[in-house]
């Protein structure tokens, strides 16, 4: 089964227009973050008009303006503001409240690139546990639907595993009735290891799906760079006649155990083309041929 298409809002200029296009499909995930420009403020009206859309945001990174506000509120030091990222529990609570005010409602709050804090795994796990405690409070109060971890390299560099995240969530909740609901990681022809592992029935995506978590794949076009890097021969192998961008998206969306592939589609035409592309996924045998070619290159 192919992953469903979700809207990523990173670097999308006309965010409200893009969201309204995606929301017209009804049950769709919209993924954003406080540091994605003015995405939160732009998304609020579209989300209010489309109650079936599901909203995921993040906590951790912040804009200079938000950092300044946190500094004035006594939540961050000047040194912390300079880093542009914080997982201090007080800041996480404050930032999540601001996100709720801007968006109106939140189904998921992802802890954004927790590996960014640069701690050894045991220390990082202690930080994550405290963040999960805060997010459990929001979830238990009904303010958010749940939480997750959105990582760029955490799984790749063994900063944490799916089982460790689940264990931390159980500790944070004080029982097995926790609200850890999802994981997010890059899945693309550049970051192809998740695809290779999933084809072998291994890796974070497979383990997360088995645990009942929603799996999100980010950056399927690697920040827009991938369509310029892919060869015409590889695009043709993926799907005869497909454009480089379509071929790259299709390969990512065909990854086993992936529930949602997030695409920063800024126009209605881009969204429609992407929907058509993922509607007919590659079978696992074909996808393995593609990854084998990548491995040989």
Topology, please?
Blueprint: E1 4-8, H1 15-23, E2 29-31, H2 39-49, E3 54-59, H3 64-72, H4 78-83, H5 89-103, E4 108-112, H6 121-140, E5 147-150, H7 162-173, E6 180-186, H8 193-199, H9 204-210, E7 214-218, H10 226-229, H11 232-238, H12 244-253, E8 260-263, H13 268-278, H14 284-296
Parallel strand pairs: 1-2, 1-8, 2-3, 3-4, 4-5, 5-6, 6-7, 7-8
Q: Specify the helix fraction band.
A: 40-55%
Please tally the β strands and state the result: 8
Distance between the termini: 27 Å
Tally of helical runs: 14
Oligomerization = single chain
The structure class reads alpha/beta
| Mean pLDDT level | 96
Main beta sheet? 8 strands, parallel, barrel
Q: How many whole angstroms does the radius of gyration measure? A: 19 Å
The side-by-side strand order for the widest beta sheet comes to 1-2-3-4-5-6-7-8
Note poorly predicted spans. Answer: none
Could you please describe the fold and organization of this structure?
The chain is α/β, with parallel strands linked by helices and 297 residues long. It has 14 helices and 8 strands. It has an 8-stranded parallel barrel, surrounded by 7 helices. The longest helix is centred in the middle third of the chain and has 20 residues, at 121-140. The relative contact order is 0.13.
In brief:
The chain has 297 residues and is an alpha/beta fold. It has helices spanning 15-23, 39-49, 64-72, 78-83, 89-103, 121-140, 162-173, 193-199, 204-210, 226-229, 232-238, 244-253, 268-278, 284-296, and strands at 4-8, 29-31, 54-59, 108-112, 147-150, 180-186, 214-218, 260-263.
């Amino acid at each position: 089964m192919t992953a469903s298409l979700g809207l990523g809002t990173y670097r999308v200029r006309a965010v409200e227009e893009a969201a309204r296009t995606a929301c017209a499909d009804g049950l769709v995930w919209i993924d954003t973050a406080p540091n994605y420009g003015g995405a939160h403020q732009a998304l609020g009206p579209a989300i209010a008009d489309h109650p079936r859309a599901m909203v995921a945001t993040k906590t951790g990174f912040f804009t200079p303006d938000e950092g300044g506000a946190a500094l004035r509120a006594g939540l961050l030091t000047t040194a912390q503001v300079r880093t542009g990222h914080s997982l201090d529990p007080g800041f996480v609570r404050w930032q999540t409240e601001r996100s709720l005010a801007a968006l109106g409602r939140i189904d998921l709050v992802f802890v954004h690139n927790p590996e960014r804090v640069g701690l050894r795994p045991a220390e990082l796990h202690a930080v994550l546990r405290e963040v999960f405690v805060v997010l459990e409070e929001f979830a238990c109060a009904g303010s958010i639907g749940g939480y997750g971890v959105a990582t760029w390299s955490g799984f790749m560099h063994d900063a944490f595993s799916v089982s460790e995240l689940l264990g931390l969530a159980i500790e944070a909740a004080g029982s097995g009735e926790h609200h850890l609901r999802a994981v997010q990681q890059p899945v693309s022809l550049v970051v192809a290891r998740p695809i290779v592992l999933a084809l072998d029935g291994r890796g974070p995506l497979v383990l997360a799906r088995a645990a009942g978590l929603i799996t999100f794949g980010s950056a399927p076009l690697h920040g827009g760079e991938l369509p310029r890097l892919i060869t015409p021969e590889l695009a043709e192998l993926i799907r005869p006649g497909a454009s480089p961008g379509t071929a790259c998206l299709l390969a990512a969306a065909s990854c086993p155990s992936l529930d949602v592939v997030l695409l920063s589609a800024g126009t209605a035409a881009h969204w429609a083309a992407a929907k058509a592309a993922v509607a007919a996924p590659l079978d696992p045998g074909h996808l393995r041929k593609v990854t084998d070619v990548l491995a040989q290159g």
